[in-house]
Amino acid sequence: MHIRRNHITTGKPVVRVALALALAAVLAGCSTDKMKTGSIGSIGSSSKGRIEAPTGYDLRSTSAKFGKAYAANPNDKATAIQFASLLQMEGNAEQSLAVMRKLAISHPKDRQVLAAYGKALAANGQFGPALDAVRRAQTPEYPDWRLISAEGAILDQTGQENEARQLYHKALDLKPNEPSVLSNLGMSYVLSGDLRTAETYLTSASRQQGADSRVRQNLALVVGLQGRFDEAERIASQELSPEQARANVTYLRSMLAQQNAWSQIKAQDGKKQATN
C-alpha cells in the first residue's frame, strides 16, 4: 500500500486489513478470524461498571471467570452482557452473539440488552438486524448517545460514512468530548483514507478523561499507517508489552510493504498493456 502524507491510496478492503491490528493489539495474542474496525466498541459499553479493554494478560482468565458465572445463571443480564463482551474481545464473535441472542429472548424489551444484541449482530456482519435492534433500543424523547454512536458505527461498516458522521456529531452534542465517540469518528475517516483528520480526532480522544486502551491503540495504528513507525510503537507501548508493540508495528510494516509491491506490479502491468 503506497502511503502518501495524508491519504491512503488503496481501497477500503486493504484499510480494513490494516485495522485488524487495533483488535490484535487488544487481544494480546488471542486469535480471531474476522477483521473489525473496532468502532462499535464493547457490547457492554452501555452498562454501569463496564469492562475496559484489557491491557495485560488477564483476558482469558477473566473470560473464564465470567463464563462460569454465566453457566450458573445465563439469564443474569449483567453477567451475560459482560461475558459476551469478553468473548468478542477474544475474537469469539459467533459465541458472543449466541449469548446475546439468548439474553434478548428472555429480555425482549430491555434497552440495554437490545443495544448489546445489536452490537453483537454487527460484529458478525449482520448489519440490517443490528440496525433494527439498536434503533428499537433508542427512545427519541430520551436519546442515548451510546446508541446513536453505535448506530453510526454500523452505518460506517456499510459504507454510509456521511450518515455515520452525522450521528457521531449528534452523539457528541449529547456527550461532549466523549472519547469513544471521538474514536469512532476518527476511525470513520480512516475507512475513507483521510488519515490526517483521523489522527486529529483520535489524538483528541486519547487526551480525554476515560479514554481506554482501544482508543490509544487506534491512534497508534493511524500513526503507523502514515509511516511513522517509531512513534506508533511508542504509543502502542503505553498499552502493550514492548514485544507486543514491536510485533504489531513489524506486521504493519510488512503489510504495507507487501501492498506497495502489489501496487507496483499492477502499475507495471498497466504500462505494458498500454504499450502493446
From TrEMBL:
Gene3D superfamilies associated with the record: Tetratricopeptide repeat domain (1.25.40.10)
The organism's lineage is: Bacteria, Pseudomonadati, Pseudomonadota, Alphaproteobacteria, Hyphomicrobiales
What is the superkingdom listed in this entry's lineage?
Bacteria
Q: Where are the TPR repeats?
A: 145-178
PROSITE patterns per the record?
PROKAR_LIPOPROTEIN (PS51257), TPR (PS50005)
The record, for SUPFAM superfamilies, names: TPR-like
Q: Could you tell me what this protein is called?
A: Tetratricopeptide repeat protein
Keywords from UniProt, A to Z, are: Signal, TPR repeat
What Pfam families does this protein map onto?
Answer: TPR_19
Report whether Signal shows up as a keyword of the record.
yes
